[in-house]
Amino acid sequence: MDVSEVEVENILTRTSGFLETVTSHSLQPYRGCSYGNSLCGVGCYVQHSYWVTKGREWGSFLEVRSNAADAYLGQVERERRWARERRGSFSIFMSSATDPFVPQETRYGVTTSLLETMVDEPPDQLILQTHSQRVRNSQNPLARLRERCEVRVHLSIETDRESVDGLPPHASSVEDRFTAAKQLHDSGHQVTITVSPLLPIAEPERFFARIADSATSVIIDHFIEGDGSADGSRTRKTILPEVLAKIEPASVGLDYREEMVRIASRHLPGRVGVSIDGFAGRFQR
Ligand code: SF4
Description:
Blueprint: E1 2-6, E2 12-14, E3 25-27, E4 30-32, H1 39-43, H2 50-53, E5 61-65, H3 68-86, E6 91-94, H4 105-108, H5 110-120, E7 125-130, H6 139-146, E8 150-156, H7 174-186, E9 190-195, H8 204-214, E10 217-220, H9 233-236, H10 240-247, H11 254-267, E11 272-274, H12 275-279
Parallel strand pairs: 1-5, 3-6, 6-7, 7-8, 8-9, 9-10, 10-11
Antiparallel strand pairs: 2-3, 4-5
The structure holds iron/sulfur cluster.
Iron/sulfur cluster (SF4) binds at residues 33, 35-36, 40-41, 44, 46, 98-99, 131, 171.
């Protein structure tokens, strides 16, 4: 893994495309992702962005944006004004092209410094999206930030299977992520489990019952309609659909998502979001 420190001029990016209906801005504390060689990295749509990879192999590099908090301070006033005028509110998605809690966060603390800076200069809403149980180490700044703005923690748990035949190990175990979700939820944080992308689930009733006990809501997101292409074609360039079809042939079609939504709705009535609607906080009734 090639880890380098870089300085950036801007850290807040105005959203476009599918994220535009979710938040006004996205924020990436890192470029690249240390989890690129783990299970979630196989289907990760960011690997297809030449803008991010510059031709480097996904999972082989991480750029640490060491001055991210200062860059945020330099932009926040102007971007807050723009967002409130043009998008109705100033909301941040952290992160859509990396994970804010890569292992290197322990050493560099970029995400932590951003959260602490946001306590003084808050957005109207922060969505913190991660695949890592390490998010629970940020309970303190998150609790302070919650006093200043709406904070939603999105923790991805794509399946109840600790290992999936044909795929590398998870970045964080399913068990560790459930424990982190429950701890945050029980401490009063808004926690959403993002089942994204939806993988074959061994025991759906048990899985969604556990989510209901560990989180405020759930988002179910299939790679079709969920990977930034209209028909899942980005994911079809990877081995993911082939591997999933071997485990559960139905899981590569949208009917499987609908079946999981029905089961989830019994356990979390009114708290199930589907695909981009869920990310935008619009839940099924
Ligand atoms: S943690 Fe997120 S950004 Fe990183 S490889 Fe996994 S899906 Fe991609």
